[in-house]
Amino acid sequence: MPAEYVGLTARAEFSRAREIAAKIIEQYSEARVDSVYLLFNEFKSVITQKMVFEKLLPVDPAEPDASGSQVDYIYEQPADEILKGLLPRYVEARIYRMLADSSAAEHAARMTAMDSATNNAGDLIDSLTLNMNKIRQAAITKEIIEVVSGASYTA
User: Fold this and answer.
1) Number of folded domains in the chain?
2) Residues 35 and 58: beta-carbon distance below 8 Å
């Protein structure tokens, strides 16, 4: 079942992330999809955004620690039960992070574009003002020359 979500980056909302996560978990748990990847703009700074392609599902096992050994945990509840409770929260958090990063990256790109446009407009205004002043000065100089030339003929 395809789904379309429009305007998500205008404002990151956890309720939208929860809705998308529910759809993803439903499709993944019913084996309609065998893996889920995220492609989004990651916010690094106001002038830097990075496209990121990350695997969301299936979750990869934890990396071994510095000594190369896996940590063996003892669970009070069955691991499957814990996973059923944690997996939706994990997917919701990752989707929300993606939305927040994309939203921040979009706003930063807009801010940078508007700053550049403002600077370019200022430069254009300065250039046009200088050109207009040169034309006006030339007209004034021409009039002065005409007045002086006319005065010399009458004398």
Assistant:
1) 1
2) yes
Rounded distance between C-alpha atoms, residue 37 and residue 55, angstroms: 4
Phi, psi (5° rounding) for residue 40? -155, 165
Per-residue pLDDT of the chain (155 residues; tens, 9 = 90+): 677 888 887 788 899 999 999 999 999 888 899 999 999 888 888 888 889 999 999 888 777 666 667 777 777 888 788 888 888 999 999 999 999 998 988 888 889 899 999 999 999 999 999 999 999 999 999 999 988 887 666 55
- Write the secondary structure of 66-109 as one string of H (helix), E (strand) and C (coil): CCCCCCCCCCCCCHHHHHHHHHHHHHHHHHHHHHHHHHHHHHHH
Taken in order 117, 121, 124, 126, the sign of the CA dihedral is: negative
Instruction: State the CATH number of the domain containing residue 82.
Output: 3.40.1380.10
- For 106, the domain range is 14-61+76-117
Query: DSSP alpha helices (H): ranges in the chain?
Result: 14-29, 79-154
- CB environment 137-155: b (16+ within 10 A), e (fewer): eeeeeeeeeeeeeeeeeee
